[in-house]
Amino acid sequence: MNVKIVCFAAALLLNTALLFAGDKPNTAGSRQVAADVGRLLELGHYSGWKLGPEMSKRILETYLEDLDSQKVFLTQGDVNRLSARYGSNIGKAVLLGDLGQAKAIYDIFKARAEERIVKVRSLIWKDYNFKSNRFVDLDRRKKRWPANIEESDSLWADRVEGELLQERLNKIAAADSGRKAVARRYNELLKDVEDRGEEDIDETFLNAVAESYDPHSEYMGQSNLESFEIDMRLSLVGIGAEMRSEDGYVKIERLVPGGPAARSGKMSAGDRIVAIAQGENSFVDTSNMTLDKVLELMRGKKGTVVRLQVFPAGATDPSKRRVVTLVRDTVKLTDGEAKAEIIDKVPPEGSIRRLGWIRLPSFYDDTGIFGLGKSASRDVAALLKRLNRDKVQGLVVDLRSNGGGSIDEAVKMTGLFINQGPVVQVKDVDGNIDVLRDHEGKALYTGPMIVLVDKLTASASEIFAAAMQDYGRALIVGDSSTFGKGTVQTIRRLGRTMPLFGSSSAAGALKLTVQKFYRVTGGSTQLRGVTPDVKLPSITDNAEYGESTLNYPLAYDEIESVPIDLAGNRRELFKDELRRRSAVRVRHDPQFQDIAKGVQQLNERLKNNRLSLNETTRRTERAKDIKQREKEEAERRNAEHADQSKIYELNLAHVNKRQLPRLAKTLATAKPAPNALDESGPAKRETLNILSDIIGFSKSSRTVGR
Is 515:487 a contact under the CB 8 Å cutoff? Predict the structure, then answer.
């Protein structure tokens, strides 16, 4: 059975801190949309869950947390009253097309926001000496709701003091004072709450209904659907980034290779955008702004300048911002293609080893929603043929930050490295299992191989990495695990069957989880991901990333394994000795030690989840961070002098050229962006060291065999 399945890298979630509007009668169109969303979820979602009392409780919790993500406006008393009234029947209302409950809940949230912001205005103008020994919560998403108004008042007193201190410490502060900046932020938030239209409220609620099934199901209204389709065509003139709303900020989900943001070297996945300016105009604060409004500010004519204030990924102090200036440009399709390098590496023993490196940003295909007119597997095959011609002795396939794409392409690409066989198993809601196989019969590359992964390696990328591991074909190197997304989504447009809507996108669409996939050994990649054979310290290997950090992920489970031919595909990988050698090198590498220390500190800060309200303490912490960054920069410069490798660029335009252009950089000379993907630093250097070890062991093994 030939199955065409699409896996999406990341959901464009609509979780902004939105707000409500009362018990108004529903329009016929909105009733039909709500009923269709409920029906499709009940009948089509992989879980098979019904919209009964249990799901109603979950929907209400999700909706309230989407509206009040930091749990600061509503109290536990409000939540208890709403639960008593709507907690068991809101799912039934969805099936009946009744959105009145969602609007009534929104009205209560709106009233609480209005009451609270009146109090906040008086707090802003109080005198503070910032010598307190108190702390403020960094992230209240997993905290309980304040018990009552009195506890909420106390929480807000610390919160406002923290925001004023943040502005005081912010070196990129706006022209007006910190008090005015904070006041303006809350005035804009209140305006956003009060201006929220009925369609926006409906969309927020229906998205909460979908999210309650799993984190990759979502409802997209017309504007968000159109933005999604533009992003999937990669034809948007903007900064070249996939974004989602989270915790009151717009967060960078993925940088599009070759786009302005990626080319700047100053942004990375996980960065949060806190303000936007057009050219030299003043910054507009984007805290609590909806995703579609932020996207409007991002877009503009090609060649125009946009400036972003960014709260860097991994930073826990909101005052640590940086300004990134970008020139809007069209993201070309070729920027997302597979690319390669040929590296002439000089190991300690002196003999040059020629190594290949393929970087694949996504598993793009030439049909369907990924319709780029290109095929990842065909492009990788073309690069492999050239690498074979240039007699590389080993290969690295770099899948870091590859969020997935077409499963068919993952299966075809697996076939470039094995002599046919099953690659992945796919199970649907009815329990039917389809085994997707490679039928080509002959591997294109059979030499030593590493697949490099990180916590952002997801979905179709995990299928490929798992197959390489299960066949014993490649060594997996990277973070402690990959992302852990083992589910398959499809998009159902709602307007095509609704005569009330003038266009097919007017009713929006439902992105629906319909299948799970499993390794040939029977285990799922859901939640657990792929565990590398050799682990390396990495900035992405922290508590902020992974399927398990999302709400309501589907569970891990197993099915029967399928037989595979190991004899014709497995290579001797010498895992124990490779781990031992790599651990010794990592232990003595100052850059890796800095990374490990940084990740440990970040995880501790995320666990403690609090920020001092003492100015002296905060300035001392900032000075320590600056000193650490200066140390890391000095170590990077020192690493440059030790590296003698030559690197040659190989892209699809070069595959038939006689001579390849040599890159000016070595493995250590390119300076990575803060928290950005390590394209040429310690992870790349150590991965090539491991590959060189494999080659050496393979030669020794053959010599002993002879």
Answer: yes
* Integer Cα distance of 294 and 289 in angstroms: 7
Q: What is the pLDDT of residue 188?
A: 87
- Give the tens place of pLDDT for each residue, 267-315: 888 888 988 989 888 888 887 777 778 888 887 888 899 999 898 887 7
pLDDT at 129 over 90: yes
- Whole-number Å distance between alpha carbons of 315 and 447: 41
Q: Which residues contact 508 (CB under 8 A, 6 or more apart)?
A: 33, 203, 206, 219, 220, 221, 222, 224, 225, 494, 495
CB within 8 A of 565, min separation 6: which ones?
Answer: 419, 420, 421
pLDDT of residue 373: 62
CB atoms under 10 Å from CB of 2, counted, come to 6
178-195 and 100-124 helices cross at what angle (nearest 10)?
160
Active-site choice (427, 485, 511, 516): 485
Instruction: State the CB neighbour count (10 A cutoff) for residue 628.
Output: 14
- Compute the distance between CA of residue 516 and CA of residue 487 in angstroms, rounded to an integer: 4
Distance between CA 38 and CA 345 in Å, rounded?
Answer: 58
Contact indicator for 139, 247 with CB cutoff of 8 Å: yes
Tens-place pLDDT, residues 508-548: 999 999 999 999 999 999 999 999 999 999 999 988 899 99
The helix/strand/coil state of 630 is helix
Can you tell me the distance from the alpha carbon of 238 to that of 326, in angstroms, rounded to the nearest whole number?
9
Q: Which of 424, 414, 465 is nearest to 444 (CA)?
A: 414
Name the more confident of 152 and 320.
152
Q: 152, 377, 459, 505: which is the annotated catalytic residue?
A: 459
Confidence at residue 16, expressed as pLDDT on a 0 to 100 scale: 26
What's the chain's length in residues? 706
CA distance 269 to 267: 7
Respond yes or no: is residue 459 known to be catalytic.
yes
The pLDDT of residue 628 is 86
pLDDT at 127 over 50: yes
Average pLDDT over residues 646-673: 77
Distance CA 358, CA 502 (A): 46
- Whether 470 is a known active-site residue: answer yes
User: Residue 352: exposed, middle, or buried by beta-carbon count in 10 A (0-12, 13-18, 19+)?
Assistant: middle
Distance CA 616, CA 486 (A): 46
546: Cβ–Cβ under 8 A, 6 or more apart, which residues? 455, 481, 483, 484, 529
Strands, E assignment, 236-347: 237-238, 241-246, 249-255, 272-278, 284-285, 305-311, 322-327, 329-330, 339-345
Q: Residue 644: which pLDDT band, with cuts at 50, 70 and 90? A: confident
Three-class SS of residue 322? strand
Angstrom distance (rounded) from CA 31 to CA 33? 6
- Catalytic residue of the set 329, 470, 479, 594: 470
Residue 171: active-site member:
no
- What are the residues whose beta carbons fall under 8 Å from the beta carbon of 618, sequence distance 6 or more? 165, 169, 317, 319, 611, 612
Contact 407, 489 (CB under 8 A): no
User: Does position 35 have pLDDT exceeding 80, yes or no?
Assistant: yes
Out of 383-392, 501-510, 572-581, give the one with best mean pLDDT. 383-392
pLDDT tens digits for 376-399? 999 999 999 999 999 999 999 999
The per-residue pLDDT for 259 is 78
Give me the half-sphere count of Cα atoms (radius 13 Å) on the Cβ side of residue 428. Answer: 9
Residues contacting residue 142 through CB under 8 Å, at least 6 positions apart: none
Residue 262: pLDDT over 90: no
User: What region, left, alpha or beta, does residue 527 occupy, with left being phi > 0 and alpha being psi -120 to 50 degrees?
Assistant: left
